[in-house]
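Provenance

Sequences were taken from public entries as deposited. Structures were produced by running a predictor on each sequence independently, with no templates supplied. The record for DNA processing protein from Geodermatophilus poikilotrophus is shown for reference.
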Amino acid sequence: MTALPSLDEDMEQGLTELTTVDGLAGPAVRRARAWLSRAAEPGSVAFWRFVEDAGAVEAVRRLRSGRAPDDVRALVGARAGQDASLEDLLRAERCGARLVVPEDDEWPAQPLHCLTLATGEEPDDPRHHAPRTTAPVPPLALWVRGPARVDELADRSVAVVGARASTSYGEHVAGELGHQLGERGWTVVSGGAFGIDAAAHRGALAADAPTVAVLACGVDRVYPAAHGALFHRIAESGLLVSEWPPGAAPHRHRFLVRNRLIAALTRGTVVVEAAARSGAQATARRAQKLGRQVMVVPGPVTSAMSVGCHELLRDVELGAVLVADARHVVESVGRLGEDLADPPERPTGPRDGLSDVAVRVLDACPVRSGVGPERLARVAGCDVLDVLRVLPVLELADLVERTDGGWRLTPPPEPVAGAGRG
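Predicted structure for DNA processing protein:
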């Protein structure tokens, strides 16, 4: 049985290997990025710049041989001497997942370019870099589980986020948004958590539309554990996405790191419910910094789960847009002039379309006893001829009727006998 090449041997061969073949990364590049995804926690500006400058294969060689800069080596620590890259790739294959890297044509380069631009604005001195949990750093690779392509689903996508301890109101709105967006051909992206996230995912699935869950653990792990069936359904038609390799645990800090991907992969972020201090608010503010549209669903002023939403709407610099349904969302993030929301339907009444004179004559008509045109003209402040001209119009609309004594308002219909009795 032929022994598999070691990581170092693969990296040596990878120096002469083509980076991309037929739209896919070469084997050495893919293995290098698999190793990097486990070697260092995502979100470090210094680490991403090191890999970007050296290339994935050379970055691994330098880290393994101790030739990387001290600040970068410190981010890897004891992991530099470990290698689970082949095991991770095989484990992903067994659960129907794959590793998508920047060298693949499936890589969502356009949506993630905002992270590249934001990282370019970070200072050169590592001491002044943004904290890893909030730094706008592009991912080195994405572990993906599901049949859909990442780039295609991200092209027309919207993030729907909110509180885990959501109310029935919030879950209803999130489910409706997910369903309506799915019907319109938009992909709902969320975090797979309890509450608003789950409601948005389920709404999209109910519309037979793909949805994307960005996880803070391996794509082969179910967290929360109660969402096993939900994640299975998402993986059947949409995608489970993570920066962490298979088997990775959902540590608390990883949820903060992954939020930037939810914001970056989508055209805009909708916050359905959020407490005064919440991860959903943080995701919305990160979306705004990345040039994405922030949208907010208002709620009852008495609800603690809507305090964060109202604070976002009150923040003038954030530029958040109030939305009530998918029409408003699509209008905010869709193509200019093409995805406009239809105006809401307004109830119509018999007075709609009446001229000013007709309205004044109608208001001058008494309720009980009828009066003549001259009296109506005096009360309405118009000529008798004007009154005579509009009275037939009002009669045809069943707004006035003629009696022996003159004109009066048409009385309301008599209630049906016995109506309303149990």
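DSSP finds 18 helices and 13 strands in the chain.
The chain has three domains: 7-143, 146-333, 356-409.
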